[in-house]
Amino acid sequence: MSDTVTEPTFTRITGMDTGPAVWQEGWLPSIDVFPELTEARSEYLRLREAWRAAGAVRADLEARIEADKEQRKASLRDAYLAGDENPAVTAEDETLTAELAEAKEHAQGALSAFLEHINRCIALVIEHRQEWLDEIKAYNASVSSEIEALLEKARELRTRYGNYGRLEHWVERTAVNAAEMPAYHFPYSDIAAPPSGDPDQEEKQLQAFMHRAYAGGFAPDTLISDEQGRKLEKGNEDSLRQPPQSGDTPRAVETNDSGEVELNTLEDDDLVDWLLGTGMFDGQDKPPAPLVVAAAEDDPEMAARLLKAERVANAETPRQEVLDALTNLTSGKAGA
After folding, report:
1. Per-residue pLDDT tens over the stretch 241-265
2. CA–CA gap between residue 269 and residue 273 (Å, rounded)
């Protein structure tokens, strides 16, 4: 790596207290894709090892000098204990001192070189960023192309397998089930093929099946239109609002011009359903207390019916304010 690759502006690493990650052995990518980055990683590992080795030499010499110092102190102590009034002082080992000074210089030099290389690695990435990203993009596009080719082959194989799978299903159904009961005969065209792996294709198949089902048969000649489908769905929703009746003719919930339910048209059980949001009112919000009270208005008879329904609907969690208000509206005809 060139020793001039330091021009890009960035926040430089100045010591071990900045950018802790760059000091770890696995900081640089281990994948060999870009030669410059591979060379930078190799040099990084070399300089990192040199820095650690120099530090180990310095630490060893410091330990030896400290041990020598403790030994000289112990000798003086023992001499005084033995009665020597003026024991000789052993001089420091000048060789160790000189070696330590040299080791410190080596350790500092190795650290400086390692730091410089770390910053050059950062500059290298900044300098080659767009070039490397373009290569990665091209590589990914190539891999995607290979994947698509494999998926296309898989779709073809699924189709071939699915055709025989559908045929096997039809033969078994026709020869066994339908042979005993003709109602089991089934169109081959309506036997679902195994998933193709193509979401768009599978969605189209599902939509086609749903259209045929709405049209009223398994294989009709004419598919239902979107408008017809919407009308059918609305009809189904409207039918869910029909109240259950004991007679043959269902009765719809009557509403006023504002779309509010005409409570005086409801049976007592239906009033309970209205308060609970169940039955014909399934999925609707439960009416709040003020609305229940307002529904009675000045009609004591309706107030009495609502009072009874409220007690049934909220037996375990009575709304006392509703009970009190409805009791007052009954003109005292119903007890709280």
Report:
1. 555 444 434 445 565 555 567 788 8
2. 6
Sorted by where each begins, the domain ranges of the chain are 20-156, 198-242, 260-329
Question: What is the pTM for the complete model shown?
Answer: 0.46
Three-point CA angle 41, 45, 47, nearest 5° = 115
Q: Which two tokens stand for residue 330?
A: 């009954």
Burial tier of 335 (Cβ tally within 10 Å: 0-12, 13-18, 19+): exposed
User: CB-hemisphere CA count at 13 Å for 143?
Assistant: 6
d(CA 59, CA 23): 19
Both structure tokens of 160: 């071939």
From the centroid of its chain, how far is CA 139? 28
Q: Hey, is 210 helix, strand or coil? A: helix
CA distance 198 to 201: 5
Long-range CB contact pairs, 78-86, < 8 A, 24+: none
Kindly compute the dihedral angle of the four CA atoms of residues 175, 179, 182, 188, in this order, to the nearest 10 degrees.
0
Contact between residue 117 and residue 43 where contact means Cβ atoms under 8 Å apart: yes
d(Cα 310, Cα 330) in Å, to the nearest integer? 14
What pairs with residue 63 in β-bridges? none
> What would the two tokens of residue 27 be?
């900081």
pLDDT one-digit tens code per residue, 101-142: 999 999 999 999 999 999 999 999 999 999 999 999 999 999
